[in-house]
Structure formats: C-alpha cells, structure tokens
Design brief:
This protein folds into 3 domains: 167 residues, Thiol:disulfide interchange protein DsbD, N-terminal domain (Immunoglobulin-like); 189 residues, no CATH class; 120 residues, 3-Layer(aba) Sandwich (Glutaredoxin), CATH 3.40.30.10. It is 43% helix and 18% strand.
Length: 678
C-alpha cells in the first residue's frame, strides 16, 4: 500500500510540474462588421481552448469576474448605440458560488454597435477585462487592448488578431488607466460594464410575486384604501346596469395596470434594459437610493408628505368627468396621482429592486404591483355588495404606513452597505449594520406595542390582538439578530448584512472562539493577519507573513488565490476542511494568501512599472499576479508553494487536486523537509 501511495504522489507531482506554465487559453480577434452606410458593429470574438470557459458580462455580484468592455468616446467622430451584446452561452447553477452563472466555451462573440459621424479615417480604442477557468485552474483578471480602424462611412470589414500579454510570457496585463486612454485621444472615456447583481438572481416569477405583495401593502395605506368606496360610488352612479358596471370595472383595472406597466417600460427604455442592472452596483447609484429611501421612510413615518403638483390632479380629475372609456382611464390616472404620497415610495423601491435584475424586470415588477391594486378596485366596483365586508378606515391604515416606513428605513441601509462594500471603506461593517437593524426593528416593535406615538397616530386606549401578534413577531426577529453582533450567521437575513469576514472582529464584539487550535481571540491574531477560511490565521502580505514565520520558526505556504476563483473555493471547502489537513494548516505552517484579483489600489509609493510589459502596476492583485509569474512562471490559481525562511521551495508546488490524501502527503513532505532554525 505504501508503494501504491508513493506512486500516486509521484504521478501527482509529475502532473503538477506539467502544469507549472503560463496559460493562454483565449485568442481574441476584432472585426468591423458593416450594418449600413453609417452604422457598424465592433465585433470581438474569443476563441477558447477546449476545457476552458469564459464568463459572461452578466455574472452576479460575488461570483467570478465578468467580461467587461471599456471604450473611448469621441462624440464628433462616432457614437455608441446601446451596450455590448453577447451570444447565448450556457447557464448553470454553481454550488460553490450558490448562484446561476453564464459562461462560454469554444467561442464567444460580443458586438458593440456604433454610428459613424464622419467620413474621415478613425481609430476606436478600448480594452476588455475577462476571467477564464477550467476544471482545475482559474486565471486572474486579464486585460486586452482593443483597436478598430475604420475609414469613415466607407469602412469595410477587417479582422485583427489581438496579442495578449500571455503570448509574451505574461498573461495578467496591468490596467490601462483612465488617464492613459484619455490622453491617447484627448477625449472622454466611457466605461461599459457587465451586469453584476447584489444577491442570488431572482426569477421574474419571484419578482412578480414580491411586487404583487408590495402593491397589496400600498393598497392598505391611508392614501389608497379610502379611495375604494369613492371609486365604487363613482361606478355605481355611472353604470346603467350590472353588465355595464362590470365592463367599466374591468376597464378601470386594466387602465391602472397599463399606467404602471407604462412607467416600467419608460424606465427601461430611458436607461436601457441592461444599463439599469449595471448601475445597481455603482457607488453613486447606491448612495442616491440610500438617500431616497431614507426620505421615503421619513415621509411614511409622518414628517411630511411627498405629493405631485396639485394642478396635475385637478386637470386629470376634470378629464375623468367626461365619462365613457376615456373618462374611466383618467379616473385611474387620478387615482395614481392622488395616492402618489403613499404609492410613490413603494413604487420607487420596487423599481430599484427590479433594476438589480435588468432586462424586462421593471415591466414585470410594475405589472405585479399594479395587479394587486387593480384587482380589489375592479372587484368592488363590479360587485358593490362586497363593500360591506371591508374593514372601516381608521388609525390602522396609518399603522400600516408607519410599518412600511420602518421597512423602507431598514432597506435603505442595504444600499449604503453596497456602496461601502464596493469602496471597501469599512465604515458600515457587519456589526454596525446589524446594530442599526436591531435598533430599527426594536423601535418598530415598541411602536406596535403602543409605546411610541408618531404625528398622525390616533390615541390608543388598547391595541388589537393582530397588532400585538405582529409586534411579538417583530420583537422575536429583533432578538434573533442580537447574536449576530457576536458572529452568529443569521441565515434568515443572509444577503442583507455584509458578509461575515467584513466585520470589525472575526467573531463579533469581544468574542472568543474555541476551535481545534485552541482559544483564539482577536488580540491573539498577529499584526497584519486575519482569520481566513476555517479560521486559519492567514497573512495577506508576503513580507509580513515571512517575518512572522521566522519569528515562530515554521515553514510558509504561499496560497496564490482569488476572491472570484471557483477552484480555490472548492479546495478550501472540500480539502482544507478535512480535520487532518486543517490541523496541519493551523498548527504546522504559516499561511500567506495572495489574492491576484484584489482591486484595491497600491499606495502611490508602492506602484511601479512592470518589468514584463512596461505598464504601471497599480493594484494589489496585479502585484501578486506579477510576483507569481516572475518567480514561479505560472499564472493559474489555486497555486500552493511550501517555502523555508529564505524563500526556497521545500518540495514541488501543488495546484488544484481534490484528493485529500495526496494533498495531505504533499503538506507533510514539505514540512518534513523544513529545517527549523536554532
């Protein structure tokens, strides 16, 4: 058995040596495709080696790096029509990232449509960033320069094969800065991004259901609910018989749906079906919507009302008196305008949620929202006798409005958190976010118990059983969140707070965790280190990690990895989690994890010109990617190297291999070759 085991290790090491190389699995070509005399397609084709896959532009946030295009604008010579399109590709659910991910194999074709405004010869420049993986490797984010030569409106089709830096022995290309691209043309630069998402992609059906419930919530507000009897009275007077009443009620409901669907269509057409989605991860977009939702929430809580100009309502109301189908349509429009102070904030929130999906999502969202409002109005207008079953208007309507105000306020901080995560500012870390939500929902519970009174609330001699029950549910939810301050995962609200690693302390405020390596408190984590996967103490800087290794007299394991590296996550979840491997990683080595896709900027004093391609290295990820290529002549991740204190290899490197026994033997071999200093 020992002989067989050694043979397995030998074959693995031989395979590892064969993998120590610079991978270049994608060949890029650019083509100019003529549509008509003034419009052209800039076609970018990726020919992908067998076994590798290229990720789409539409990768959800938290997944692999999407393919992203950047073009230089010149408004006098040409203009862009829309954003880049792409082929159908494949979409599968990824168990590691827990999301649907679209990718391409063999070939991917992207097209950017433009309109030429001149007959002069022009050159359109830009760049693309992409990421590719196979079953065992992921490559770091790579940039390729784009260039298209056109002879004005007389341009003909032309194909150019692009040289990536991998052909020169270097795949990971340094970022071409905005200033560089701008200086080449003297024009403004415009970035066309992919379509990330704030969380796991929801189906349009799910979005429809959520929007329907949002519409039902809007129906139960003091601006909308009292309109039901008024509307029923209008149709009762206008209808000569029951059949006409039912017809008018149906037309009224369809008019409401048409108005809101039209709103969703206008939003989609103005911003573009996909650009809404691209905006959803923009810092300024998230900050603006944070402020908007705070304003909506304050309005719902009773500080002021958001209304459309009164002249609009007067003009529309006058048209409603015309009678007939046109009068019914304007009656629906009058309802939308009059109720805007209550429906506006909810509509705005629903559109923002839909924007995170892009495509026709805003239209679907508005259809679900309007259907929930239209159905009760139409049914009660068609069957006035049902009115007797409706609860009477009263203070409970304002309670519904205030309840929605608290929810709007809580949701607002999700947008602020998104902006903070993108900036990596660490101003709204997990504990702070959870503390804010505990405060908001705690205040909501006290409001429902009648302990807090707001401006438009009625005097309460008692609270109803329903209100008490809802208050108890909210209080339970508030108490449930409290352990989150000490590191509890809070699965019920997963996706809303920042991730567990984005926190002030790894296990929450003042928490000490007992694990397999003993008691580890925040104060015991070495300077410059953090708790990585499975609570392994990990350094993110090579020099700091090597210095600590010398101090504790242990060998070093370099872990070239990436935040978006699916195979790295597989190794961590399936191999590192083994108790024997985990004990070794925690107790017998010093782990240095170098993220090749870390987008954070290097300090100006640490930026340098690459010796490989002559461009400026400006990010932490580029620095470690170039370090891996220079020192180990490899560019794939995961990539593991065991070192002594002088930086010499203790054995051959290791890459992706799900065999726990082989990986453990590799670790033990390297550790046994380490000679501790006296």
């Amino acid at each position: 058995m020992k002989i067989i085991s050694k043979l397995f290790i030998l074959f693995f090491l031989i395979g590892s040596v064969s993998n120590a190389q610079i991978h270049n699995p994608v060949e890029w070509k650019t083509t100019v495709e003529k549509v008509n005399d003034s419009e052209f397609n800039l076609v970018i084709t990726a020919n992908i080696d067998y076994g590798w896959h290229l990720y789409s532009q539409t990768v959800p946030e938290g997944g692999p790096i999407p393919t992203t295009f950047t073009f230089v604008e010149n408004n006098k010579a040409y203009e862009f029509l829309g954003i880049p399109t792409e082929g159908e590709g494949h979409e599968e659910y990824d168990n590691v990232f827990e999301m649907d991910i679209k990718y391409f194999d063999t070939q991917a074709i992207f097209k950017q449509k433009i309109r030429l405004l001149t007959n002069d010869k022009i050159t359109i420049k830009g760049s693309l960033e992409f990421m590719v993986c196979d079953d065992t490797h992921c490559l770091p984010p790579t940039e390729v320069d784009l260039s298209f030569d056109l002879q004005g409106r007389a341009a003909e089709e032309k194909t150019t094969v692009l040289d990536s830096d991998a052909d020169k022995g270097f795949l990971d290309k340094s970022n071409t800065t905005d200033e560089t691209l701008a200086s080449e043309t003297g024009k403004e630069k415009s970035k066309v991004t992919g379509i990330p998402k704030k969380e796991k992609r929801k189906s349009l059906w799910t979005l429809f259901i959520l929007s329907f419930f949002a519409g039902f919530a809007a129906l139960l507000t003091p601006c909308v609910f009292p309109m039901i009897p008024m509307t029923v009275s209008f149709f009762t007077k206008q209808s000569k018989n029951k059949a006409v009443g039912i017809r008018n009620a149906i037309v009224f409901g369809l008019s409401i749906i048409l108005l809101y669907v039209l709103l969703g269509t206008v939003v989609t057409s103005i911003f573009g079906a996909d650009s809404l989605n691209a905006l959803s991860t923009n810092v300024w977009f998230n900050l603006v919507f944070f402020l908007l939702l705070v304003i909506f929430a304050i309005s719902f809580l009773g500080a002021f009302e958001i209304t459309l100009p009164s002249s609009w309502g007067t003009k529309v109301d006058s048209q409603a008196d015309r009678g007939g189908l046109i009068g019914i349509f304007f009656m629906a429009l009058a309802l939308a305008i009059v109720s805007f102070s209550c429906t506006g904030p909810i509509v705005g929130t629903a559109l923002v949620a839909a924007a995170a999906q892009g495509g026709v999502a805003p239209v679907i969202s508005m259809f679900g929202f309007s259907l929930a409002i239209a159905l009760p109005f139409s049914l009660f207008a068609a069957f006035p006798g049902w009115m007797n079953s409706l609860p009477k208007s009263g203070g409970w309507l304002n309670t519904v409005k205030v309840f929605l105000g608290f929810l709007e306020l809580a949701l607002a901080f999700k947008f602020l958190s998104n902006a903070d995560l993108v900036l990596q500012a660490h101003l709204l870390e997990r504990e702070v976010f959870i503390a804010i939500w505990i405060t908001i929902f705690g205040a909501l519970a006290f409001y429902l118990f009648g302990k807090i009174k707001l401006p438009h609330d009625s005097d309460l001699s008692h609270i109803s059983v329903g209100r008490l029950t809802l208050g108890l549910v909210v209080m339970c939810f508030t108490i449930y969140m409290v352990p989150g301050l000490w590191g509890a995962p809070l699965k019920l609200i997963s996706g809303f707070p920042p991730p567990l690693h984005y926190s002030e302390s790894s296990y929450g405020v003042g928490y000490t965790k007992l694990n397999e390596s003993g008691n580890i408190s925040e104060s015991q984590i070495p300077k410059g280190a953090h708790l990585g996967p499975h609570d392994i103490i990990s350094f993110l800087d090579y020099e700091q990690g090597m210095s600590y290794a010398k101090k504790v007299n242990k060998p070093v394991m370099l872990d070239f990895t990436g935040h978006a590296c699916v195979n790295c996550r597989k190794m961590e979840e399936r191999v590192w989690s083994d108790s024997r491997v985990l004990q070794t990683l925690k107790n017998d080595i010093v782990l240095i994890s170098l993220y090749v896709d870390d987008k954070r900027k290097l300090p100006e004093s640490e930026q340098y010109i690459s010796s490989l391609n002559g461009k400026k290295v400006t990010t932490i990820g580029k620095k470690w990617s170039e370090f891996q290529i220079n020192k180990y002549k490899a560019n794939a991740q995961p990539y593991y190297v065991l070192l002594d204190h002088e930086g010499a290899n203790l054995n051959e490197y290791s890459a992706y291999n799900p065999d726990i026994e082989i990986y453990l033997s590799w670790l033990q071999e390297g550790i046994s070759n380490f000679s501790p200093s006296d």
